[in-house]
């Protein structure tokens, strides 16, 4: 369910015509819908509540770290899950209180740990013994004990794309499930560490519940063991990962997911933390692009558009599917034609879709890529010295540019010539 719909043959974001934004902001641009963000958050929060879970929802900012997006969710009560000092700064700038921020990630530097400890965030999810020792040192130097969960790797197959599966023992994430007990014992002995919980995140874009159930049951067993060892566990951070429909897949509903969580972890007396990213923002965003040329190749027709793999990387990186729709619907009687939708970057990987059926399009026509609100703008780069795409947030009949397109002067300003040249 989202708020990108046609009115009189033209695609709107809520009550704003996308053609108007295209005219005023230029293409390509990302467009997010406030009503859709709210809807996704509310459905998810209500599902957890209905399942009887005392849960804190920490939006995984890496899916879309725009501060206006984070604030929209924070105003509804969301905290933040961050994976770098940059994201931590964005969450704070968006107004997320430090006591609702979780810091995850395998490679936090000393400086990042110092910054997080100084800000007094809710917890740090620790992923290795060296990190545990470094954090203890950093926290002790400030005279505090930092609340932590240890991220455990439950060795379950999330059944998702290899590049976004994180809970198998060969993945770099977390502490192997079988070694968790000894690492907890170490954590418990360190002066700067206050052990509060267990963390687990098995991957992204999951479309089945079984991997979640398997992981939650392992966590449940671990909590029993740790408590038997005299370690107090009061929080369980079960990560994100619930999938969204890009094409015809039907991921589990938030209600079904919450039910699995409640039935496996609900009676442990723990505060539950969840870190959804894609689920909250995926279908709340689109990427709008203009057709530059229609090129008739030897065997197929190419729509060459002004967005490219640097703006929306998922098709090139994961062979991901994104719906592509015309901003102006086909005129009556117009059939569909098969086209390859490609960007201008000098790589064959810069292909958004092959043999996709679209109404006949001409140079200058607008099209929109669906489900682009998660891992879209967040993963964009300036490859081919293309300026980062602006981001626009719509609310009812209003829109605002919430990240501007940099000028070429801005882009070149960070470069310099050494004096020997
Ligand atoms: C990426 C990530 C998330 C969010 O994943 P989604 O699939 O977007 O919900 C949550 N927690 C951690 C630790 C992550 O790395």
UniProtKB/TrEMBL annotation:
Limits of the Orn/DAP/Arg decarboxylase 2 C-terminal domain: 29-373
Catalytic reactions of this protein: meso-2,6-diaminopimelate + H(+) = L-lysine + CO2
Enzyme Commission identifier(s): 4.1.1.20
Active-site residues per Swiss-Prot or TrEMBL entry: 346
GO BP annotations listed: lysine biosynthetic process via diaminopimelate
Highest rank taxon of the organism: Bacteria
Record CDD domains: PLPDE_III_DapDC
Requisite cofactors: pyridoxal 5'-phosphate
Record flagged with keyword Glycoprotein: no
Domain Orn/DAP/Arg decarboxylase 2 N-terminal: 36-281
Assembly with partners or alone: Homodimer.
Function: Specifically catalyzes the decarboxylation of meso-diaminopimelate (meso-DAP) to L-lysine.
Protein name as it appears in the record: Diaminopimelate decarboxylase
Organism: Paramagnetospirillum kuznetsovii
Gene that produces this protein: lysA
């Amino acid at each position: 369910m989202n708020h990108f719909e046609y009115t009189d043959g033209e695609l709107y974001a809520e009550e704003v015509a996308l053609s108007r934004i295209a005219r005023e902001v230029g293409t390509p641009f990302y467009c997010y819908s406030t009503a859709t963000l709210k809807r996704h958050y509310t459905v998810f929060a209500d599902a957890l509540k209905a399942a009887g879970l005392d849960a804190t929802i920490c939006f995984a900012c890496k899916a879309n770290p725009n501060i206006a997006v984070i604030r929209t969710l924070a105003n509804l009560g969301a905290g933040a899950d961050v994976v770098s000092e940059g994201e931590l700064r964005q969450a704070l700038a968006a107004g997320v209180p430090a006591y609702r921020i979780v810091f995850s990630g395998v490679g936090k530097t000393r400086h990042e740990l110092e910054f997080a400890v100084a800000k007094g965030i809710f917890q740090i999810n620790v992923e290795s013994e060296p990190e545990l020792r470094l954090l203890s040192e950093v926290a002790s130097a400030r005279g505090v004990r930092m609340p932590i969960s240890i991220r455990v790797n439950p060795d379950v197959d999330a059944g998702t794309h290899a590049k976004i599966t994180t809970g198998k023992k060969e993945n770099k994430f977390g502490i192997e499930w079988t070694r968790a007990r000894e690492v907890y014992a170490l954590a418990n002995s360190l002066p700067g560490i206050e052990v509060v919980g267990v963390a687990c995140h098995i991957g992204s874009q999951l479309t089945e519940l079984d991997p979640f159930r398997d992981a939650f049951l392992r966590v449940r067993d671990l909590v029993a063991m740790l408590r038997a060892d005299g370690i107090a566990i009061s929080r369980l951070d079960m990560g994100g990962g619930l999938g969204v429909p890009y094409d015809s897949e039907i991921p589990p509903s938030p209600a079904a997911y919450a039910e699995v969580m409640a039935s496996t972890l609900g009676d442990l007396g723990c505060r539950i933390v969840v870190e959804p990213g894609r689920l909250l923002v995926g279908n709340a965003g689109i990427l709008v692009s203009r057709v530059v040329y229609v090129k008739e190749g030897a065997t197929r027709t190419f729509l060459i558009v002004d967005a490219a793999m640097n703006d929306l990387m998922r098709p090139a990186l994961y062979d991901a599917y994104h719906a592509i729709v015309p901003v102006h619907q086909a005129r009556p009687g117009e059939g569909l034609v098969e086209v390859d939708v490609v960007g201008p970057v000098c790589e064959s990987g810069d292909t958004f879709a092959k043999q996709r059926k679209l109404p006949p399009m001409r140079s200058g026509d607008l099209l929109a890529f669906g489900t682009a609100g998660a891992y879209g703008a967040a993963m964009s780069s300036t490859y081919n010295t293309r300026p980062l795409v602006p981001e626009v947030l719509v609310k009812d009949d209003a829109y605002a540019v919430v990240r501007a397109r940099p000028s070429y002067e801005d882009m070149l300003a960070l470069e310099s010539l050494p004096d020997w040249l």
